[in-house]
Amino acid sequence: MPQNSLSTAFAGASLYVLDDELAQIVNISMAIEMPLLLKGEPGTGKTMLAHAIAESLNMRLIVLNVKSSMKLVEALYLYDTLTRLNDSRFGDSKRDVSNIEDYIKMGKIGQSFVSDKRVVLLIDEIDKADTDFQDDMLDVLDQMEFDIIEIDKTVSAKNRPVIIITSNAKKDLSDPFLGRCNFHHIAFPEPDMMREIIQVHFSDISKDLLDHTIKAFYHMRDFREIEKKPATRELINWIRALKADPDFRVKDLVKGDVPYLGVLFKKSPDYTVARNLVSRMRL
Question: At the fourth CATH level, which superfamily is domain 20-76+102-185?
Answer without folding.
Answer: P-loop containing nucleotide triphosphate hydrolases (3.40.50.300)
